[in-house]
Amino acid sequence: MKKIEHTWAIVTGASSGIGECICHELAKKKVNIILCGRDEETIHEIQENLETTYNIKTDFFVGDLVEKGEPERLAKTMGGRYHVQFLFNNAGAGNYGPFLDYSLKEHMDIIDLNIKALTKLTYLFIGHMQAHGKESYISNISSVAAYLTVPFFGLYTGTKKYVKDLTDTLRYEFKNSNISFTTIYPGPTETKFFHHANQKVNSLGKHFMSSPEKVARLGVKATLQKKKACLIGITSKLGAAYSFLPNSVLIPAAHAVMQAGSSYDDRNKTLESKNDDQLFDNDEGGHLQ
Ligand SMILES: NC(=O)c1ccc[n+]([C@@H]2O[C@H](COP(=O)([O-])OP(=O)(O)OC[C@H]3O[C@@H](n4cnc5c(N)ncnc54)[C@H](OP(=O)(O)O)[C@@H]3O)[C@@H](O)[C@H]2O)c1
């Protein structure tokens, strides 16, 4: 690891949880930070705190990474201003619960954020990092979910498996380059993630949670050490250890574990109202249901 003071890092999802804590970890090492998120007021508050506490420089990008062209706008704007040497693809979300309880758009938004935006930023910043040629780091935040196959959460766990595969293969592909790739696998972590995912965690589930500070500390450390993977918490380590089991065993086991530690926080939307906007005319003028 070379000197990293005064280098520039991009952190997506910097407005809360793990992303905000990654910013603090980097700032402690005097890395300048570009904070990304949708909530402008919160982003500015965190910026001010980082600048005054650690005496670093910051910049910000406010945008919804699900919206068309936003990841490209982020890369173009910040890649044009700085030699970015760290990219933490951290912004992510999930929809817990019965598949049809969510609209198709809600599901597609998860794919657009967890997969498409992460892929676009990875692609664009590899080009940027190759062009400036300085020692660089791309860390993608996956999840213990990458090692499990969780019913009522299958779309999310699928996106996190994708993050694992993409990052692992890029690490191999670019092993002789100036860019190092790390995948971070947090287990359950005490953030707003569960609230956004409509998942209520009970006291047993909370018992197994890590703090976002710990996830960020270990994730940044592994990134700087150019580690391939960073498994955080007992559930991540157990998940990885048992991932060789077939889905016929893993799926019911994962379901039982999820039910023991949490419940679906029903949003009181009727299936009819949720799916109304998705009915569309078929050739006969009827509805596809
Ligand atoms: N918490 C856990 O148990 C856990 C476990 C394993 C992995 N993870 C992963 O860790 C990462 C961080 O999650 P967290 O736990 O810190 O959750 P969080 O507190 O809900 O933070 C999510 C961050 O993503 C940003 N974000 C959400 N949708 C966005 C969008 N459409 N465009 C741009 N930014 C968006 C949010 O910012 P704004 O709302 O300001 O846009 C927020 O800063 C995620 O990738 C998650 O999958 C979490």
What is the C-level CATH assignment?
A: Alpha Beta
| CATH fold type | Rossmann fold
How many angstroms does the end-to-end distance come to? 56 Å
- Low-pLDDT ranges: 279-289
The value of Rg in angstroms is 20 Å
For the largest beta sheet, what order do the strands appear in spatially?
Answer: 3-2-1-4-5-6-8
Class from secondary-structure proportions: alpha/beta
Fourth-level CATH superfamily: NAD(P)-binding Rossmann-like Domain
Could you say how many structural domains there are in total?
1
- State the shape: globular
Q: What are the bound molecules?
A: NADP nicotinamide-adenine-dinucleotide phosphate
Query: Main β-sheet, in a few words?
Result: 7 strands, parallel
Strand fraction: 15-25%
Helix content: 40-55%
**Would you count the extended β strands for me?**
9
Can you count the helices? Answer: 11
CATH architecture: 3-Layer(aba) Sandwich
**What is the H-and-E element order?**
EHEHEHEHEHEHEHHEHHEH
Mean pLDDT comes to 93
In short:
This protein has 289 residues and is α/β, with parallel strands linked by helices. The chain has helices at residues 17-28, 40-54, 70-81, 104-132, 154-173, 193-196, 203-207, 212-224, 234-241, 247-261, 271-275, and strands at residues 8-12, 32-37, 58-62, 84-89, 136-141, 179-186, 199-201, 229-232, 262-264.
